[in-house]
Amino acid sequence: EEFIQRMPKVELHAHLNGSLTTAALLELGAQKYGSTNEELEKLVESFKVMGESLDECFKKFKIAHDLTNTREGLAHATLCVIRDFAKDNVVYVELRTTPKQNENMSKTEYLECVLESIRSARKEFPYIIVKLLPSIDRSQGIDSAKSTMDAILKLHKKFSDIIKGIDLSGNPNVENFSNYKLIFETFRNMNLPLSLHCGEVENEEEIREMIDFGMARCGHGTFIKESNLQKLIEKRIPVECCLSSNVKCGTVSTYDDHHFKYFLDNSHPVVICTDDFGVFDTTLSKEFIIAQKTFGLSKEQLFTLSKNAVLSSFASEEEKQSLMQMIENYFMK
Ligand code: 5GP
């Protein structure tokens, strides 16, 4: 366990508002409402999810969203998430977030606030590289996706060192990927790689469409089967596996049944990720420990998983090389 804790880790699938711990939410609450009160503590406790459905999980984000709807809250939340990843010896993280419009901020301002917070966190946390994958939330419809795209288009040049790709997330039971294809084509033409939440629920047709459309990485990939699975494997599309998230949301019944094992056994690039470490009360180290206990991972497999993560990341070649070096040094000593 200590070996995993100290291991330099790479996180590729983490939603900003889902990565706020109880402590971070209370900090944000105190900042916003003056002092923490019982009501807030109760709300924060209810934020933790245990054995509920995917739809229930989505309701849980609301409390975080209420605390990050000001610039001050959002900037502090970004800092909390980076701090908590750094504390867990994560050396590279790709955060994701859907820009939100409210009475305090436009979508562009939301995105800029997160990007600037990431940039300014470099001084305080010099040992972690932080990138951002702005997210399109599929449940909000096409018009909202277009205005999210506009915000990304406005900022991606100024923050080209941080914006490294685009995510499609949001409730998979709402709307269909086909409606968003044009938008994702625009991003692809800008050389922004795509990480799509794919196969979180059973939907053979949509999974096929996503794989045919093409993605740099696949989020979850829980229900990818038969010919779709063959295609995913042929194309060597890395899969981001979030063990606790899937078991706690009930899309996978037990850790033993997790599809992570299939990809591991078939030497397919698979990456261990947290998804929402606040909501699911976990850390990247804990996820590795769960995987190690459940599947009896050897040190060599831990090494392979670490290398998979670097190779599947959207970091620059130079960054990949230095991350690889760091990981090799750790495993070889
Ligand atoms: P945010 O984008 O607000 O920073 O992070 C929270 C959001 O990420 C949620 O509202 C949801 O849209 C998305 N999200 C978090 N976890 C999951 C997940 O497991 N599956 C999907 N499809 N979306 C998620």
Automatic annotation (TrEMBL):
SUPFAM superfamilies: Metallo-dependent hydrolases. GO terms for molecular function: adenosine deaminase activity; metal ion binding. CDD domains: ADA_AMPD. Keywords: Hydrolase, Metal-binding, Nucleotide metabolism, Zinc. One of its GO terms (biological process) is inosine biosynthetic process. Pfam families: A_deaminase. It catalyses: N(6)-methyl-AMP + H2O + H(+) = IMP + methylamine. It comes from the Eukaryota. Its cofactor is Zn(2+). The keyword tRNA-binding does not apply. Residues 8-329 form the Adenosine deaminase domain. PANTHER family: ADENOSINE DEAMINASE (PTHR11409), ADENOSINE DEAMINASE-LIKE PROTEIN (PTHR11409:SF42). Belongs to the metallo-dependent hydrolases superfamily. Adenosine and AMP deaminases family. This is Adenosine deaminase domain-containing protein. It comes from Hermetia illucens.
